[in-house]
């Protein structure tokens, strides 16, 4: 422990303080998985999208980036934003917009 900061506590809290939410009826998330699983995930989303009529976008990155906003590490006041490296959400949003335009 360093002063009032407890690095082990901070690491335990990262999972619960990582941002995941919907904005404008859009669910965004990052999945960390083995490369062979990607096509199965893509096929599953395609099938769900066709059955439930929703548009979607997906990108694959070999890295991820976590941006942290820490107001107080010792008091558990921190939030983390995870994105795929190389523009993850931005590239997926481009695909989503193209899908919406194709339906219009």
Could you give a short description of this structure?
This protein has helices at residues 7-16, 38-52, 88-103; strands at residues 22-23, 26-27, 64-72, 77-84. It has 104 residues and is α+β, with helices and mostly antiparallel strands.
Kindly list the characteristics that best describe this protein:
single chain, 104 residues, alpha+beta, two-stranded antiparallel sheet, two-stranded antiparallel ribbon, 3 helices, 20% strand
Which helices and strands occur, and which strands form pairs?
Blueprint: H1 7-16, E1 22-23, E2 26-27, H2 38-52, E3 64-72, E4 77-84, H3 88-103
Q: Give the integer mean of the pLDDT values.
A: 83
Major sheet summary line:
2 strands, antiparallel
Element-level helix/strand string: HEEHEEH
The N- to C-terminal Cα distance equals: 57 Å
How many domain units? 1
**% residues in beta strands:** 15-25%
Discrete helix count: 3
Structural Rg: 17 Å
Helix content: 25-40%
Strand order in the largest sheet:
1-2
Number of separate strands? 4
Uncertain residue segments: none
Q: Using the alpha-carbon principal axes, give the shape.
A: elongated
Alpha-beta classification: alpha+beta
Provide an overview of this structure:
By secondary structure, the protein is α+β, with helices and mostly antiparallel strands. The chain has one domain. 39% of the residues lie in helices and 20% in strands. The strands form 2 sheets. The protein has a two-stranded antiparallel sheet. A two-stranded antiparallel ribbon has the order 3-4. A hairpin with a 2-residue loop joins β1 and β2 (26-27). The radius of gyration is 17 Å and the shape is elongated. It starts with 6 loop residues before the first helix and ends with a helix. The model has no long low-confidence stretch (mean pLDDT 83).
């Amino acid at each position: 422990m360093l002063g009032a900061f407890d690095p082990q506590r901070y690491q335990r809290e990262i999972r619960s303080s990582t941002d995941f939410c919907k904005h404008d009826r859009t669910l965004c998330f990052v999945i960390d998985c083995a490369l062979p699983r990607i096509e199965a995930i893509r096929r599953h989303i395609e099938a769900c999208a066709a059955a439930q009529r929703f548009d979607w976008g997906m990108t694959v990155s070999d890295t991820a980036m976590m941006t942290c906003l820490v107001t107080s590490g010792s008091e558990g006041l921190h939030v983390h934003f995870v994105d795929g490296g190389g523009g993850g959400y931005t590239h997926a949003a481009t695909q989503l917009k193209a899908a919406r335009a194709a339906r219009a």
